[in-house]
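Quarterly update from the structural biology core.
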Amino acid sequence: MHELAVTQGILDVVLDVARQHGNRPITLIELVVGELSSIVDDSIQFYFDMMSQDTLAEGAKLQFRREPAIAVCWDCGHQFTAVAPLVPLCPICGSARLRVSGGQEFYVESIEVQDEDSDSAEHT
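Predicted structure, tokenized:
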């Protein structure tokens, strides 16, 4: 259910950008989502479609790019992609001494608004 609050945050950000660019309609929103963030793309899309009605973001396409988490073994130095549920041991040496970085990101990477003079989009 946290996707509702997250989606409201996205909508607030993109509408603010649209206002800064002359109240032009938003056509595309590119989002970066960490693999370990527990964000569900379909839920965000569902809430966004509902919440953006009658706004400058209505009909905007959401594009999701997943960012992996990286685990590094402190004992042997092996580096591997970490996915949920996290594996508690290094697949090479069996050590439990792992450092996981990344995978928690969630942000708006870019927004496209409709060009002032035509139906084409401008990247912001």
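Strands lie at 26-34, 61-67, 69-73, 79-82, 98-102, 106-114, 121-123.
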